[in-house]
Design a protein that fits this description.
By secondary structure, this protein is of the alpha+beta class. It is built from seven helices and six strands, in the order αββααβαβαβαβα. The protein has a single domain, classed as Gcn5-related N-acetyltransferase (GNAT) (Aminopeptidase). A hairpin with a 2-residue loop joins β1 and β2. The structure holds coenzyme A.
Length: 185
């Protein structure tokens, strides 16, 4: 997203707080997990906004990069758009808590599957997801886009966790994600 001033402006305008879980410790944001549901996701800036911030060439370039990494979720699936924990708080189970809580919410909402993508070089994240029951379902090479976008990885691994949920309570819907995220746990 370029330098932090411009990136912060774009993020501030287009992050959707209703599509994320936040981990807060002593009033400080220490972790964030974005979710893509069938209704929408955490960060999908329109091309016009990127063009107005970066100009036509760089705006379209960034839009294509984001589009390339974007994945739609189907109706009974939640896709983890991204997860990050403050550097000083890593290894203290904040990531585990975010993913576990997402799973609780997904089960409450009759979501059948949580999925995510992780890059081949991110061993720590991969082992965390495996420990939490995610299994690798596919691998895709991003060549030649790794060169075009200078991504420091060549392969994206999709991992999924199937959830056994109570389908009697209603049809799969992700509407409640939007309400529940405003609660504090
Ligand atoms: C991946 C990430 C979200 C995990 O969050 P976390 O709060 O550190 O996760 P947890 O503490 O629950 O678990 C991390 C694992 O690494 C171990 N660990 C130890 N020290 C660690 C450290 N300094 N940093 C990260 N992990 C550490 C933990 O013990 C744990 O191992 P385990 O699964 O065998 O128990 C976090 O490392 C991060 O923000 N990374 C940068 C962004 C990123 O890579 N996101 C993932 C994109 S797919």
């Amino acid at each position: 997203m370029g330098d932090s001033v411009r990136a912060t402006r774009v993020l501030a305008r287009h992050l959707v707080p209703a599509c994320c879980l936040a981990a807060i410790c002593n009033d400080k944001l220490v972790g964030l997990l974005g979710v893509q549901t069938a209704q929408g996701g955490f960060f999908s800036p329109p091309v016009a906004s990127l063009i107005s911030e970066y100009g036509v060439v760089e705006g379209v370039y960034r839009y294509m990069g984001l589009f390339f990494l974007h994945r739609e979720a189907v109706s009974d699936e939640w896709y983890v758009d991204g997860i990050a924990v403050d550097k000083n708080m890593r290894g203290k189970k904040v990531g585990t808590a975010l993913l576990n809580y997402l799973e609780v919410m997904a089960r409450e909402n009759n979501i059948r599957k949580i999925s995510l993508d992780v890059i081949d070089t991110n061993r720590k994240a991969r082992s965390l997801y495996s420990r939490l029951g995610f299994v690798e379902t596919s691998q895709s090479s991003i060549w030649p886009f790794n060169h075009i976008y200078e991504f420091p990885f060549k392969t994206v691994i999709t991992m999924e966790k199937e959830l056994a949920c109570n389908r009697e309570e209603g049809d799969g819907n992700s509407q409640r994600f939007q309400k529940d995220t405003h609660k504090t746990y």
